[in-house]
Design goal:
Transketolase_C (chains A, B); Rossmann fold; metal-binding (chains A, B); transferase (chains A, B); six-stranded parallel sheet; globular; alpha/beta; 592 residues; 3 domains; homodimer
Chain lengths: 592, 592
């Protein structure tokens, strides 16, 4: 087991190997990948497909003097194994040491924490410019998948490199013919032409950007890769090396169903079946995708748009087909395009609905502000994974959404507290003609309580779910259930029934309700599933600033949290029911 | 005067004209442009260059059924004159009716408020998708300058149109060989090749994206333009029409010095000299550009980066040359590239400093958060026009910056209150190795008071400029002088001397200072030059939420203000010195 990998402690050890040993190393690494992936899950397709390329990179180049920047960096497992971190793959007790993305805290061979797509070329041009300024001589290598190429930042990077750099930069385009789902965009027609002509097609996007270009069809063959990398090493100018690899290489299920196997939960290697059943029962992904299919069928004006993330809300190939190509469009990894196109479509009378992950919407501040909100285009955006307890990788946190989109004029952010409210808000967001409206998918499982939901969210109106006195608990979205628990505890411990408010709007305040609370309340407690800074609670605190109402603002801090335990984090922030009850008691005592 | 233009009340009138009359119309329109531009200033080069193209568009297409989307829309003056809005050009009493950008409130021929670059193709794809959905048949036309093409959103739009649309979309690339300054990026080498070969170059960026392509060299000749537009009208698929025009056409100074004449203040037509002397005396643009030249000379690690906006901080061609091409780089209109490249350069030991306008930095939320702040790359960003009283066009407001960048972990936003502090903060931001640091250029003229500035801003520390009691006035950045005035007035009217605090950090709070204020203050008043929501004051209000300290939060509202009178706006918000003094008196009375 791992006969060659066992000898690898740093890239220097890779350079000593002959071709046969390198080939054995590749199969060792695939075994190590299986060891980790079958047990804890992770990015399967991208890593299985790039084993040979990353071995060849370390064989040819001299890391960390020569510098690799992996786009998204979800495909960097092989690089990690070759740079002193194989324990995170072969030792089951040490999986936790590895973040799944490049991470400078782990190794001097990593230069950036990366998890969003399309950034590698731009970051690499920066390394290259500084190298030139400081009279360095090393190679700078960006390693980018075909899927990431459609992002505006990557295209800006290619454009810059194509004329402004004039020195060494090697952009390796790892073309496995897929984004997470199938690719969308004119670029991909061109990549296909280039593959079909062994790099000699009439049109060549990279050359049109002013870049030198080399094609290598055998992207899973170490000898070929070593040859092509040697040929561009120490290049005096930017060059694109287009390599053709097979996503999921070496594992039939992953080779066959590439969308499912892009990222996969723990699985049985023999059958390819998942060995855990996360969620189970009702899921918001199923609810959303089923709803969208039905909604599109019943209303021909509905236009579903996804920037390469249909599966973020359960919209697999079959459901996409049910919606059909007139009403469903994937613009590739191009969030700016998705939002601006939605705005245009709304102005022409369609009902656009954009679906993606919260963390990726960050890429569209300006498109949401200028293209959309300034024009008050009534688009709907459904965001998954905005909850603090769903994705905990520092690169994929959804906890900043309220502080971003809650402060753009005209934009409404709706935070539902149960299934009925989520479904009603989604329906409203799509049908309305009022405002750009973002609906956050709840992150704490499907809650089926008996609270009915309003249909209309045109007016900012908080909902008083339980009338009490003295203390008003405003529990936003996902934290509503924590608000309920806090309310019970306060009643039990402090002897009075507090008021429980479901704010529903994360972006705005309902001054009328806030004003009325002054009558028989001394304290307002806000709870929100996101950072406090720029968020919901601060708006409440400012509203009451000149009054005698006290305000306790609870939420996360403005920090880059990484792979945390959600409940521990809340405990550290004083957000257990007990701690908050105590704090309420203290605050009331002081103010009396 | 205006013999043909006088007959034009709508596009229908244009269609009736013969070629000779169309040509006369073009010179009428240039006269009308001169009438407005010489008297109130505006975008000269872009409008002078596109007169014939916009006449031909209205001659060939049928607006508003056929729909034009003008990129940036600063070149849409001719379109406006042809669609019922000529009074804004020929009648000096009615200049104010015209926003200088497309504006749906002005006319049914405008579909979007637009002022940022690179958005037209994406917006147009949305119009086109919705048209297809609703079985419409009209032409959708995006009109985009060559300078705007380098923006990621535009490239994402081309990529989408190149394969996913499959129906009518006409992208007119108005190639005048310039952004505001000279163009930068590989795209521009390709455009030159295409011009030099009459559209037949070996490489063609547009075809590589999968688009159909037509070249028209005579972009200022109406007959040629009509011919080429007729040839693509009702196209069944997306097509790029690349037209070559002359920026500043018809006015020698503007044809000769295109950078100076992109936008110009009022001028004497005979001499080309400005007839107003805005500013005069010391300016932050001169101070900044002189400083950057000197800093780059004295420190070879300094790398000045601008996304096509060097003149935002006075860095004209001569000063750019003094810094030299190793230490100065322009990445074209590509803000994402600018910030990500800066992050990369910082990681490799350079001292990157990005200069641009506040409103354009909005395009980089994700690059600042993920590429930069998450990696704590110590880049410097110098932002002009973040003040509420500098740019008042709704598309160019800088008042959102604190709510955006003040809520990203690790990012520091510094708001200086006088010249000494601005210069010290800029020096610190460039030399430090602590955090991504944004320095806001003051908007209220160069203040030379005697307050000295600290050199080090590594620790968040508010500065108590004047110690008093009862009321603490926290006057951020540009509003510091208003805080001073308020302090004097409070002392005079209310009979006690308040404490005056210069917070310096717009992004963070200094808990120690805030805590200490509790000892002998009852009220904190925050003043900020930006929207309150997500801004500085709300952080203060939340800090004091559970204490007996009252907080009054003053600033602008979360709104899209357009072409306002700054002092009137403040008066409407209750922000005159008198009104605030009264409010302070009331608040103190209630709390006693």
């Amino acid at each position: 087991m791992y006969q060659v990998l066992n000898q690898i402690h740093s890239p220097a050890d890779v350079k000593k190997l002959n071709l046969q040993a390198l080939t054995t190393l590749a199969s060792d690494i695939r075994e190590a990948l299986f060891n980790r992936l079958t047990k804890i899950g992770g990015h399967c397709g991208p890593n299985l497909g790039s084993v040979e390329a990353e071995i060849a990179l370390h064989y040819v180049f001299n890391s960390p003097v020569d510098k690799f920047v992996f786009d998204v960096s979800h495909q960097s497992y092989t690089h990690k194994m070759l740079t002193g971190r194989k324990a995170g793959y072969i030792d089951d007790t040490r999986f936790g040491e590895d973040s799944g993305y490049t991470n400078p805290d782990e190794s001097e061979h990593d230069f950036f924490n990366i998890g969003h797509t399309s950034t590698s070329i731009s970051l690499a041009t920066g390394l290259a410019r500084a190298r030139d300024l400081l009279h360095g001589k090393e190679n700078i290598i960006a390693f980018i998948g075909d899927g990431s190429l459609s992002g505006g930042e990557a295209l800006e990077g290619l454009d810059y490199a194509g004329s402004e750099l004039g020195s060494n930069l090697i952009v390796i385009v790892n073309d496995n013919e897929m984004a997470i789902a199938e690719n969308h965009g004119g670029i991909y027609k061109n990549l296909k032409e280039l593959r079909d002509t062994n790099g000699k097609a009439e049109h060549n996007l990279f050359k049109a950007f002013g870049l030198d270009y080399v094609y290598e069809p055998n992207g899973n063959d170490i000898a070929s890769l070593v040859r092509v990398f040697e040929s561009v090493k120490d290049s005096s100018h930017p060059v694109v090396v287009h390599i053709h690899t097979q996503k999921g290489k070496g594992y039939t299920p992953a080779e066959t169903d590439q969308e499912t196997w892009h990222w996969h939960p723990p699985f049985d290697r023999a059958t390819g079946k998942a060995t855990v059943n996360w969620g189970g029962g009702e899921s918001y992904e199923d609810l959303t995708s089923n709803y969208l299919v039905q909604k599109a069928k019943s209303d021909p004006k509905v236009l579903v748009i996804s920037p390469a993330m249909p599966m973020a809300l359960g919209l697999g190939p079959e459901k996409r087909q049910m919606i059909g190509p007139v009403q469903y469009t994937d613009c590739g990894i191009a969030e700016e395009q998705a939002i601006a196109m939605a705005s245009g479509a709304a102005k022409r009378g369609a009902k656009p609905v954009v679906i993606t992950n919260a963390t990726f919407l960050q890429r569209t501040y300006d498109q949401m502000a200028q293209d959309t909100a300034l024009n008050n285009s009534a688009i709907a955006v459904i965001l998954n994974f905005s909850a603090f307890n769903t994705m905990t990788d520092v690169t994929h946190l959804g906890i900043y959404i309220n502080s971003i989109y809650g402060n753009i004029p005209n934009v409404r952010v709706l935070a539902p507290t149960n299934k009925a409210e989520y479904m009603a808000m989604m329906e409203y967001a799509i049908d309305q003609n009022d405002h750009p409206t973002i609906v956050l998918v709840p992150g704490n499982g499907v809650v089926n309580d008996n609270r009915p939901a309003d249909k209309d969210y045109a007016q900012v109106k908080f909902r008083v779910e339980e009338q009490g006195s003295k203390v008003a608990i405003m529990a936003l979205g996902d934290f509503y259930q924590r608000g309920e628990a806090l309310s019970r505890q306060v009643e039990k411990e402090l002897g009075f029934k507090p008021t429980l408010v479901n704010p529903r709007f994360a972006s705005d305040i309902d001054c009328e309700t806030l004003e009325r609370l002054k009558e028989n309340h001394q304290l307002v407690v806000t709870l929100e599933d996101g950072i406090v800074q720029g968020g919901f609670g601060e708006k409440i605190a400012a509203f009451y600033g000149d009054s005698s109402m006290k305000v306790l603002v609870y939420g996360l801090e403005k920090k880059f949290y990484d792979r945390y335990n959600p409940e521990e984090l809340l405990a550290n922030l004083g957000m257990t029911t007990d701690a908050m009850t105590q704090k309420i008691a203290t605050t009331l005592r002081v103010s009396q």
